[in-house]
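Support request from a user on the community tier.

User writes: "When I paste my structure tokens into the form, the page sometimes reloads and wipes my input. The last time it worked, I copied everything first. Here is what I submitted, just in case something in the input itself triggers the reload:"
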């Protein structure tokens, strides 16, 4: 079973990547948030030197906090440390840009950056549009060992809507989508992705679907509320934020209750930008992926937890993981939103899910 761990880049927790590798986890990705986490590439470089088989990548970077040639260089440098086991995870950015008070990247900006990074990482010359000018760029010393552009670097695109899916289907090796153990939602995204792949003229199955869920293994006597308090915290709200638009377009298929609940949670978290009492963006994001912000507890209902989270007893975790794969997910991913419990969570994934795969 291909299984990915995603988490915050926390520089003193690099050892957890080796822990994951030893438990059979196949991919490990770390997020990028300049005001939120450690730098992902420093984390991944250290992880590369401590591991030998696990694939390493960003989960995810974006086209605005780093320009495409810089991203391509970072990935090609990592590929020199871990040949053939790197992947570039990239998206429009939720936390990285919103936490700085800025808008996420446009789909067009994402597409342009991916095209440039893809060509550079393959050792080819490409036109790069920057600072109002267009210039050809390429890596200038490909044989010296500064970077590795020989081994292929897969591109994973984090998508959150119909247009994102259509664009990602043109060039991605994999699409990362916020999904929990709901078969209807998974089948919807699988269908839309497969259609977009076909429309792009690519072969069936050429783009993998990577689910992103929030994880917690319940101990004896614990309930879903313990999963929120002690585990994934405010994480499920991210799934609501990224999925609200697409879900609203498919109300008849998904049902009004979960669509309305997800939209309500997203709006409650982000607030009304026009409101005079709107909290400062730094305050909004101060507790993001740091456990549970008490202000967000009323927003997170059992309905949302059941829909967006891979949680439960070991037997329930295995059952839900099987359902997700049978519904169309190629690579299961859990994003560990609480660095204080990440090592425990990785151990739970290995022993409760992968050991029985």
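"...and here is what came back when it finally went through:"
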């Amino acid at each position: 079973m291909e299984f990915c761990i995603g988490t915050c880049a926390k520089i003193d927790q690099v050892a957890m990547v080796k822990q994951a590798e030893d438990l059979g986890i196949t991919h490990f990705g770390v997020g990028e948030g300049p005001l939120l986490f450690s730098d992902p590439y420093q984390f991944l470089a250290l992880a590369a030197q401590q591991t030998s088989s696990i694939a390493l990548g960003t989960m995810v970077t974006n086209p605005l906090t780093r320009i495409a040639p810089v991203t391509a260089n970072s990935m090609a440098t990592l590929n020199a440390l871990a040949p053939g086991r790197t992947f570039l995870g990239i998206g429009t950015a939720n936390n990285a840009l919103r936490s700085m008070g800025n808008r996420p990247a446009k789909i067009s900006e994402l597409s342009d950056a991916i095209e440039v990074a893809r060509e550079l990482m393959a050792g080819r010359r490409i036109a790069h549009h920057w600072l109002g000018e267009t210039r050809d760029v390429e890596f200038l010393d490909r044989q010296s060992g500064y970077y590795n552009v020989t081994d292929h670097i897969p591109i994973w695109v984090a998508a959150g809507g119909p247009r994102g899916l259509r664009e990602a289907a043109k060039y991605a090796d994999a699409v990362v989508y916020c999904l929990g153990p709901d078969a209807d939602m998974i089948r919807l995204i699988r269908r839309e992705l497969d259609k977009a792949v076909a429309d792009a003229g690519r072969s069936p199955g050429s783009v993998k679907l990577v689910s992103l869920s929030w994880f917690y293994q319940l101990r004896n006597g614990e309930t879903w509320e313990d999963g929120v308090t002690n585990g994934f915290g405010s994480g499920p709200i991210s799934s609501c934020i990224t999925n609200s638009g697409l879900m609203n377009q498919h109300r008849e298929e998904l049902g009004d209750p979960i669509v309305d609940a997800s939209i309500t949670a997203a709006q409650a978290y982000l607030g009304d930008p026009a409101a005079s009492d709107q909290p400062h963006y730094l305050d909004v994001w101060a507790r993001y992926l740091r456990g549970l912000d008490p202000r967000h507890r009323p927003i997170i209902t059992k309905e949302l937890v059941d829909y967006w989270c891979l949680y439960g007893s070991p037997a329930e975790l295995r059952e839900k993981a099987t359902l997700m794969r049978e519904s169309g997910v190629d690579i299961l991913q859990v994003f560990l939103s609480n660095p204080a419990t990440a090592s425990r969570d990785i151990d739970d994934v290995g022993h409760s899910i992968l050991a029985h795969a």
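Agent notes: The reload is a front-end session timeout and is unrelated to the input. The chain has a mean pLDDT of 94. The first strand starts at residue 3 and ends at 7. Escalated to web team.
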